[in-house]
Amino acid sequence: MLEEQSKTVQEFFSNQFNQGLEDEEGLNFLADIGETIEPNFLSEAASEAYTFYQQNVEDADWGNVQLYQARIENINVYIIYVSTDGDDGWLEIYNDQDQGLGFAQYDFETLNWSDQETIRAEV
Asked: I need a surface site. Which of 2, 24, 41, 103 has the fewest CB within 10 A?
């Protein structure tokens, strides 16, 4: 089930990202599909991810961390969306059972899915 949820969510985000590129809006669709939430509503793994990016990106003053909660094809997800002062950023997605569904690094033109360790090494 986790593998199926991961595939569904990653395909959804990849399709939305690619559509956003055509519309010159990138990941701006996040505000349309979900609602922003406060960090205290996050599960343990999602909270740890938020803290990692908060400390290493936002507190270091070279980007922002935003949190969203959404429902994607009947899957409740928490989204940690990180944008930088440049063209790159990160995306981590968790389900409501605190399981990672997708980890990606993106730039202006590509959304690259990988594992959490690999994408965080680029921060």
From this structure: 24
CA distances from 6 to 2, 75, 100 (A): 6, 10, 8
pLDDT tens for 10-56 read: 999 998 888 775 555 556 677 778 888 888 888 899 999 999 999 99
Q: What's the residue count for the chain?
A: 123
3-class state of residue 122 by DSSP = coil
What's the average model confidence in pLDDT over 93-102?
96
Beta strands in the chain (DSSP E): 34-36, 63-72, 75-84, 89-95, 100-106, 111-114
In sign, the C-alpha dihedral spanning 26, 50, 70, 75 is positive
User: What is the spatial distance between Cα 77 and Cα 62, in angstroms, rounded to a whole number?
Assistant: 26
At position 50, the amino acid (one-letter code) is Y
Q: What is the token pair recorded at 63?
A: 């980007």
Task: Express each pLDDT in 61-76 by its tens digit.
Answer: 999 999 999 999 999 9
- Per DSSP, the three-state class of 61 is coil
pTM: 0.91
